[in-house]
Amino acid sequence: MSLQRFTDRTKKDQDFAEEIESHLAHEQDASMARGLSPQEARRQAHLRFGNPRTVREQEWRYRSFPWFEDLKRDVSFAFRALRKTPGFAVICVLVIAVGIGVNTAVFSVIDTVLLRPLTYPDPEALVQLMNTSPRGSFPGANIPKFNIWRQQPGIFQRVAAYDFGGAGLNLTGGDHPQQVEGVHVSADYFAMLGAPVIAGRTFTAAEDSPHGGHVTVLSYSLWKSRYAANPHIVGTTIPIDGQPYIVVGVIGRSFVTDTPADLWVPFQFDLNSQDMAHFFTVAARLKPGVTVAQAKAQLRLAADQYRRIYGVNSLPPDAGFSVLSLVQSKIGDIGPSLLVLLGAVGFVL
Amino acid sequence: MIMKRPHEAGDILQGTLDMLILRTLVMGPAHGHTITQAIERTSENVLEVEQGSLYPALHRLEDRGWVSSAWGVSENNRKAKFYRLTNQGQKELNAATGRWRKMTRAIGLILGESFD
């Protein structure tokens, strides 16, 4: 297609107007030659030709890109309108900027919380052990509860206790001391969460017993940063809070926990303890095929058992035990509110 | 005297107007009004050129390079724009005429058979 069509539109339109005028004159001449009066001849010529303006407009459209012209007009109109009202323009820009920002922020929260809540294998089978009461349910456990839960037959593949770290542990030795986050766990913790062991092993049951010795498992980041990814770290001794600890294993990089841990040490519970203090949390992996409802039913029996042994004061009749899917416990009640929030900020844009 | 619009075959098929214009210009350069009259007279007033569509057609032909145009003075001593057939336009006319003959023959064959 020749681009000539789109060039020199104004000049061509002028030319066309003259050409039409010339045509009408010739038509008028012809009619006058047939004996019509000049006025009537002129009128007939116009009648035959139709509206010159319409024809010129058609020609003008033929020489333009309609959608492009319209877009140009719309954009220039928008700019003119915005320049006339600078205050409004600034508010518009701000609203759009804030809208984009808020949407991005809310979506990144939803992405981590709702779309990728747990990085462990088969996360649906993971549950958190809960205490129920008329006031609601909450996590937390003492040694007698942990002991009874892990002894329940048929529902749990593994049961593990863990805390959320504490004041931090002091790593001494080497060039500089370092304060690190140490999380206490029971022996089954890593196996329950399917943690990848990249060197050595995790804690044995013996190491997780009273007087099991000072042992620790390192996280990938600590191993990398403080020990330069030393492949012979397993079996060496590192000083933690002035005590020598034997490194028994290193966990892979992909293992992410709620409380970021630099290293782990075993609880070494005395399972015969009657200590009623709640100072840790318990989670479990359901046996394949066991549903949450079945686990809850079994835990009602466990509550009766606990009440018989430790007395009604330690567990009132309207209180009990339950489980909550770990995915659920992480999301909690905020799932729907997050979605509502996403919808709300979506409307800002 | 008012020219009556013919009752049959009045509208020129889309695309054939181009061919008719090119054919008319074979006789020599002409301006729009002459082209209109030539087509109407030669067709014995069967074909009537819609005047509003003649000029857009001429301009399209010019954009394609099949005709060229220049202002001049007409036989009535008036200013008029004259259109001239280019070599390219001559080639296009030959091709279009060939296509037209082929098609009318084909249509004629079909109509002839069905009327028998």
What keywords describe this structure?
heterodimer, A: 3 domains, six-stranded mixed sheet, five-stranded antiparallel sheet, 11 helices, 13 strands, 19% strand, elongated, B: 116 residues, alpha+beta, Arc Repressor Mutant, subunit A, three-stranded antiparallel sheet, 3 strands, 54% helix, globular
Tell me about this structure.
- The complex is a heterodimer of chains A (349) and B (116).
- Chain A is of the alpha+beta class.
- In chain A, 46% of the residues lie in helices and 19% in strands.
- In chain A, helix 5 runs antiparallel to helix 11 and helix 6 crosses helix 9.
- The longest helix of chain A has 30 residues.
- Chain B is 54% helix and 14% strand.
- Chain B has a 3-stranded antiparallel sheet.
- The N terminus of chain B is likely disordered.
- The interface between A and B is medium-sized, with 29 and 23 residues.
**Total number of distinct structural domains of chain B:** 1
Under the CATH scheme, the architecture of chain B is: Orthogonal Bundle
How many helix segments of chain A? Answer: 11
The general outline of chain B is globular
* Text of the CATH class of chain B: Mainly Alpha
Largest Cβ-defined interface: A-B, 29 and 23 residues
Mean pLDDT value of chain B: 83
Helical fraction of chain B equals: 40-55%
Biggest sheet of chain B, strands in spatial order? Answer: 1-3-2
Gyration radius over CA of chain A: 40 Å
Strand content of chain B: 5-15%
Proportion in β-strands of chain A: 15-25%
Strand and helix order of chain B: HEHHEEH
- Seen as an oligomer or otherwise, the chain set is heterodimer
